[in-house]
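Quick one: structure for this chain?
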Amino acid sequence: MRPVFVQFRCAPGKTYEVADAIYDREIVSELYSTSGDFDLLAKIYIPEDADVGHFLSEKLFDIPHISRTLTTMTFRAF
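Got it. Here's what it folds into:
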């Protein structure tokens, strides 16, 4: 499993609804409300053999009221 971080920008007034929908999918290990350009930050473990883009598209990105996402890949540095 490899961790990725996904930030979500939500439609105004829909952050809690989006957060509930993300939790309902049962694939995030951590989910935070954040300040700044994005509303939510999720830590997600992707199976090693899965394509990250397809995995996230199929599991999360069809949730209503998500207006933008930013995915940050992680790499083993040490």
